[in-house]
Amino acid sequence: MPKQSFSGLRLEGTLSTDSQEIAYAAADFGGIISRTPLAVARAHSPRDVRSVLRFAAEHGLSVTPRGQGHSSMGQAQAVSGIVLDLSDLNTVHDISSDRVVVDAGTTWAALLAATLQHGLTPRVLTDYLGTSVGGTLSVGGIGGTTHRYGVQTDNVLSLDVVTGDGEFRTCSPTESPDLFNAVLAGFGRCGVIVRATIPLIAAPERVRRIKVYYPTAAELRSQQRKLLRERRFDFLQGQILPSDAGWVHMLDVSAFYTPPAEPDDATLVDDIGYDPARDKIEDLSYWEFATRLDETVTYLETTGEWRAPHPWPNLFLPDRTTDTFVDQIMHGLSHSDLGASGLILTYPVSTDVLTTPLFRVPDAPTIFLVAALRFASSESIAEQMVRSNRRWFDSAVGLGGTSYPVGAIPFTEDDWRNHLGQAHQSFAEAEARYDPSEVLNRRLKLTP
Ligand SMILES: Cc1cc2nc3c(=O)[nH]c(=O)nc-3n(C[C@H](O)[C@H](O)[C@H](O)COP(=O)(O)OP(=O)(O)OC[C@H]3O[C@@H](n4cnc5c(N)ncnc54)[C@H](O)[C@@H]3O)c2cc1C
Questions:
Q1: Are residues 64 and 126 in the same domain?
Q2: Three-state SS at 120
Q3: Residues 56, 169 share a domain
Q4: What pLDDT is stored for residue 101 in this prediction?
Q5: Which of 16, 196, 348, 438 is deepest in the core (most CB within 10 A)?
Q6: Rounded to an integer, what distance in angstroms lies between the CA atom of residue 255 and that of residue 230?
């Protein structure tokens, strides 16, 4: 096959076939699969995005947008195509009293730092803020305030997109809603998000964070259900963690506040089995709280686990079958099945706050996220974990569950179709309308 020439592609940013850039774009956080692109384009403007998409359409190439590449299994990689890296498209534009206009390549950390200067915050933040705005809006974006506000894709006022046909378009719930609904949580298959307008609320100054430990996962979930119903906390999560004595089950909840108002600790911990000798209450600034994972990242960098393979499966289960599912996966699970710093993240969400059509969750009033943060010490262990993830997925589907496809669960075309369910038809129509030459991530395969 003749070597593809990119000489006709002029960008304000860069286009590179240099081996270092290719290696960068062939890797992701998951470290499980690596697909080699033909070239890496770094967009410095929305015009660059349009030029790349038009060039690709003319030359029969595929384009995969990439934010920060924190996907687990090749979601932002391209085979024999162009990786369109958006990380340099990262200006925070206007911040007004209730919204911000921001470029898609901006990280949530940079966005939050900018909005906090105005005493404002997005309603929903992911646990780790090193992800990009365009990246999480292309998948969903769940966090500890999701039980209140939905996922990040439920909190978008409008998007500027370059669609696969190389056209600039603005979309919102009222302007081209078909495109809006096909781009949010659409894994970059219809268009590239270049800019988003995101609603803001007053940021709390401080956070009272409470961790309570329970002997069983069932007890943790029972407390989480109660707190979800009561809406006692602003932030609601939980974890199953390895310990010398087996597994511990930690409720992780927070109340946000701004002095002089202050939450009453006794009221916050009333009737949730809080034991001052065992459990923990801490007081943090909102920024310290939002960036709480930074310390863990530094630790994982020192142990080498930040660069090791991360076969992280993310699943949603209906409340009614979550206990059965968690019992199934915990049965015989050893600490080494998660890896040295592994844990299982689990928390409930009421689905009435979820409005994004492509963010597929079980049909139930309450669902639980069950996400395993697995760390593999070798490629063969990563392969075993990925196989086990697939078994977990099959079992979850049998119990009415769905996958959150940012993770490392092998997904075939049929799985995508089943996953999209009733949204499949309108999504396929939007793909045909906005990306007629099939330039973008059209065959997004999650296979090792
Ligand atoms: C440490 C860590 C913690 C995490 N915590 C959370 C969490 O709390 N909640 C949560 O929901 N997720 C979480 N994730 C998962 C994360 O949100 C997703 O992997 C997300 O996609 C990462 O953003 P990114 O910018 O790295 O996207 P990438 O991996 O670069 O891309 C993700 C997908 O979106 C597409 N895409 C990227 N940018 C654009 C764009 N501008 N336009 C169109 N398509 C685009 C890509 O082609 C790809 O399919 C976490 C991941 C890590 C590594």
A1: no
A2: strand
A3: no
A4: 98
A5: 196
A6: 13
Mutate to test the pocket of ligand 1, among 48, 50, 71, 296 (most ligand atoms within 8 A of CB): 71
| Number of compact structural domains in the chain | 3
In this model, does residue 401 exceed pLDDT 50?
A: yes
Please indicate, yes or no, if residue 300 is contained in any of the structural domains.
yes
How would residue 3 be classed by pLDDT, with cut points 50, 70 and 90? confident
Between residues 1 and 404, the one the model is more confident about: 404
Q: What is the mean pLDDT of residues 183-195?
A: 97
What average pLDDT does this structure show over 286-310?
97
Q: Which atom of ligand 1 is nearest to the CA of 310?
A: 53
Distance (Å, whole) CA 62 – CA 428: 17
Atom of ligand 1 nearest to the CA of 441: 47
Looking at 167, 185, 203, the residue that finishes a domain is 203
Tell me how far apart the 2 most distant CA atoms of the chain are, in Å.
72
Identify the domain containing residue 65 by its residue range.
14-85
Q: Hey, whose CA ends up nearest to atom 46 of ligand 1? A: 76
Q: At 330, list the tokens.
A: 């915990």
Cα-flanking dihedrals φ and ψ of residue 158, to 5°?
A: -160, 165
Specify the ligand 1 atom closest to the Cα of 126: 8
Tokens (6 digits) for 200: 């803001």
- Local confidence band at 174 (pLDDT 50, 70, 90 cut-offs): very high
Whether 422 is in a domain gets the answer: no
